[in-house]
Amino acid sequence: MTRPGQARGLASILPHRYLLTLLVRKELRVRYQASFLGLAWSYVKPGVQFAVFYFVMGTFLGQARSLPPFAVFLFSGIVVVNLFSEILGNTTRAVVQNAPLVKKIYMPRQLFPVSSVLVALVHFAPQLVILVIGAVASGWRPDVVGVAAAVAGTVIVIALALGLGLLFGAINVAYRDIENIVDLILMVAVWFSPVLYPTSRVTGSFGGWSWLEQVYFANPLTVAVELFHRAFWWGAADPAMRDAELVNALALRGMIALVIALALVFIGDRVFTRMSRTFAQEL
Predict the structure, then answer these.
(1) What is the number of domains present in the chain?
(2) Could you read off the pLDDT of 216-237 as tens digits, one per residue?
(3) How many CA atoms lie within 13 A of 22 on its CB side?
(4) What percentage of residues in the chain have a pLDDT greater than 90?
(5) Residue 137 lies in a domain
(6) Among the listed residues 191, 185, 187, the one whose alpha carbon sits nearest the alpha carbon of residue 57
(7) Are 201 and 246 within 8 A, CB to CB?
(8) Would you identify the family this protein belongs to, as annotated (predicted)?
(9) How far apart are alpha carbons 152 and 231 in whole angstroms?
(10) DSSP-derived secondary structure letter, 7
């Protein structure tokens, strides 16, 4: 029998699903309290981001001509990076932002970062709907491999961001400047993953530094973006634009990325569980 109050990691969430639901509702209510647009911000923010990137990268730098339909290519990457950014940013701050609850009552501390993941998925859903509509309008039709790629990409992003969020969130309780480090990571995430450019431009561009190229393609976020490109852009793109060799390598890269992401969840959960014993005192 588990001793009362003993931390058991993410597994401790299962008996507290009702509390998790309450935390998700609270976070959504607080976030949009006194907000004119409310949940519509889930559409506005990615919409503005898409418009800026499309105008700069698509029009000025000519990506719209070299990667048709560039709108689907671009938005496929944006929804992935936005999901990663929201989960990682919010899970890192989850414990600190819920300090009054942490100090007053005992509950599994993992409830706070996991609730942030669910809130991010609430915002991810309308963006995914827009992506599907845009892809269909561009001539895309779903296929089994594409659906599997979309599911795999989503799982990789959630696991990667949650694992890092648990790790950084635990450390952030003691050292608040971790939030600044995470903000830097999120700032460059969109540039160090193939959201604005095809990975074909990365291949060989490192010159003799082939190990840098391997590191780039080992990045789970890079793989997740490419999986979404396979899921939504591939079916609408001109056959001449499709990199069959790259797509054939996605299955192996996807499995490696999933293993890395799940390993980070395990490591992050262990660190979070160990450090959670002193959260109340630190806060």
Answers:
(1) 1
(2) 888 999 999 999 999 999 877 7
(3) 7
(4) 49
(5) yes
(6) 191
(7) no
(8) Belongs to the ABC-2 integral membrane protein family.
(9) 10
(10) -
Alpha helices in 105-143 (DSSP H): 111-137
In a domain, residue 166? The reply is yes
Tell me: the pLDDT tens digits for 151-202? 999 999 999 999 999 999 999 999 988 999 999 999 999 888 999 888 878 8
The two tokens of residue 28 are: 């959504």
**DSSP for 206-249?**
TTT-HHHHHHHHH-HHHHHHHHHIIIIITTTS-GGG--HHHHHH
Domain with 255 in it: 28-282
Residue 4: inside a domain, yes or no?
Answer: no
* 230 falls within a domain: yes
Contact 210, 182 (CB under 8 A): no
**The residue type at 54:** Y
| Neighbour count for residue 263 (Cβ, 10 Å) | 12
- What is the distance between the alpha carbons of residues 140 and 48, in angstroms, rounded to a whole number? 24
Tell me how far apart the alpha carbons of residues 67 and 58 are, in angstroms, rounded to a whole number.
9
The model's pTM: 0.91
Q: For residue 279, what is the enclosing H or E element?
A: helix 279-282
Using CA atoms, how far residue 225 sits from 4, 23, 76, 198, 268, in Å, is 42, 30, 7, 10, 23
Predicted confidence (pLDDT) per residue in 64-89, tens digit: 787 888 999 999 999 999 999 999 99
Q: How far apart are CA 265 and CA 231, in angstroms?
A: 25
Contact call for residues 88 and 94 (beta carbons, < 8 A): no
Q: Would you call the peptide bond into 108 cis, given omega within 30 degrees of 0 as the criterion?
A: no
